[in-house]
Amino acid sequence: MNEQSSVAHPLTPRLPSFFYGGDYNPEQWTATFGANEEEIWREDMRLMRLAHVNVATVGVFSWVSLQPDENTFTFEWLDRVMDLLAENHIFACLATATAAQPAWLSAAYPDVLPVDEQGVRHGQGARQNYCPTSPDFRRLSQNLARNLAQRYGKHPAFLLWHVSNEYYGGGCYCDRCASRFQDWLRARYGSLEAVNLHWNTAFWSHTYTAWEQVVPPGPRTEVSVQGLTLDYRRFISDMYLECYRGEADILHEATPDVPVTTNFMGIYRNIDYFAWAPYIDFACWDSYPTRTMPPAEIAFAHDLTRGVRRGQSWLLMEQTPSQTQWRPYNPLKRPGVLRQHSFQAVAHGADAVMYFQWRQSRGSFEMFHGAVVSHVGHEHTRVFNDVAKIGAELAELDSGILGTRLPARVAMIFNWSNWWNVEFKPGLSNALNYVDEILLYYQALWDRNIAVDVVPSDADLSGYDLVIAPLLNMVSEEPGASIEKYVEQGGTFVTGYFSGVVDEDTRAWLGGYPGPLRKVLGIWVEEFDALDPEQANTVVVAEGSKLPSGGYRCDRWCDLVNLEGAVALATYGEDFYAGRPAITEHTFGKGRAIYVATHLDKGLVSGLVGSLLDELKLAGPLSVPAGVEVTKREGNGKSYLFVLNYNDDTVQIALPQPMDELLNGGGRVTELKLPAKGVAVLRAV
Ligand code: GLA
Ligand code: ZN
User: Fold this and answer.
1) pLDDT tens, position by position, 383-409
2) Which residue has the CA at smallest separation from atom 3 of ligand 1?
3) CB 15 within 8 A of CB 259
4) What does the pLDDT look like over 638-672, one tens digit per residue?
5) Predicted TM-score of the model (pTM)
6) Which domains does the chain have, with CATH numbers?
7) Closest ligand by atom to 240 CA
8) Shortest CA distance to 144 belongs to which of 252, 255, 69, 66?
9) Of 27, 166, 393, 437, which residue is the catalytic one?
10) For 175, how many CA atoms within 13 A lie in the half-sphere containing its CB?
């Protein structure tokens, strides 16, 4: 139907279309069916083809099925599955099967099991239930990866590597982890004296005099040394990265042309995904939004994932076709929602739409989790039908979209160490919520359909017109200098309360907050008023200000700011600091820096972001009614618009020039009529 470009998938020339498919775990149910397993597998192949599936993720939790004891490998069933996939022109995203170790392994090497904060060693069970520093775990998981690579490296179905699954990044409090932590600190700081200095341990007589005294923080040990808490989070994230790299290095060496990755979890606190970026070949994540999650929040998680490997497209590795089972309540996705979720991912740069899972397992923890093929076993279901329709749409979609980028002029800084620091720091306010504050500003950008790159603190900012970094409490010297240079050269920078207060070791900047950002912001923050939940203040924007005038509620936190070159765009309305600056702007070099001293109400965030975008002449790709998301992907000499309607009613959108609609029957259009939950993909002509 559509004029197809012959563009290959950025991850493989062998598949010139979106990846479509999902987790396929035949070993989990064949035995329980008691039937001829080949019959069921063949039926799976027929159904996959019906649903336009071209990639199946196999082996994710197959360790025991592949290796029933340390000296025995049983690859034969996987050989057969791989052959069947190849015969049916379906590719395999091959998992290394190491996210849940078999019982025999825990029994043979009990120190593989992690120790919790109470000092209790876990028993065998669940998944991601291993100590990340265990040499036996690493040796055996790497050995399995090596064997898989040898066996399937040249298999015609083999497409991608999927290492482990959703690294969890919880802590382990075993003695070995404690001693690995000491090594990690030695490498970071050089000496124990330096550790003491960076952690300010003279406080409460916490000075360490021997490395062995430094143990992981926890309720039974130490919760009062903030540097320790922060470094332990960094260390744990690094240890899981070492587990990943141990396997990935083997795979890269054995199959140098095959991309390697592991599936992330979006806005996930335990793992610093930016730090993993150099070791994965592409980013992917598993998206499980709740029914009421604002589309902007899902969009942010997509953008965050894209931000891990900026400039590349990414894969939606998992989503449920219907419902989860692990929440207290698990409503079905309403008709149209799955399609909207699928295309929203593509709209934010995904080149794959994949599910968890293909066939519903017969028993155990996830037996009622949504699947493409449910327990009934045939294709005559609402869910299968929806999945097949989306598959057909993606198969027909112009492959020119593959590998294209979202042209973003706006960046938001996201920083995991900062997140840990803000939320683990004792004192002042339990109301501080990093992600909340980020989403508050992201929402204002999303409402205007502004493309956003989510970048780490040390990113090159020079390509952006506007950089927003709310609650950036932790700013070290270098990123501070680069933000200053960015503004000096013409950039617009926005940050807010409690930012620039500590360095990367979580020690306060002396000589006036916001430390390295003080000069560029032209302010000095003298005090923090951490309001209790019954307290609030107002922010007053006077007539004639570039912000929409009026009085707005603010709460949670109020910085008491002195101007040092900046001007006040708004002031506090109440209390002993009424009249003092609440929002400031400082012209610096060719640019300006804005400081928002309090947790603003969303109306004023919207007003502020809107006024900056207007000044910078940044607008969304299409003028649309509220509740309609529009993104643009560009590249391969083409440009595409994705339009998604989240309203309960049909919206009508006039296009500035005729475009080719690639869904919904296609054709050249000058106007769009999108029903509730409708999606359109438009190509510029
Ligand atoms: C995660 C995991 C899957 C599965 C789903 C269920 O995304 O990666 O193995 O457990 O959750 O929602
Ligand atoms: Zn451990």
Assistant:
1) 999 999 999 999 999 999 999 999 999
2) 356
3) no
4) 999 999 999 999 999 999 999 999 999 989 999 99
5) 0.98
6) 19-174+238-401 (3.20.20.80), 185-229 (no CATH), 410-616 (3.40.50.880), 628-684 (2.60.40.1180)
7) 2
8) 66
9) 166
10) 2
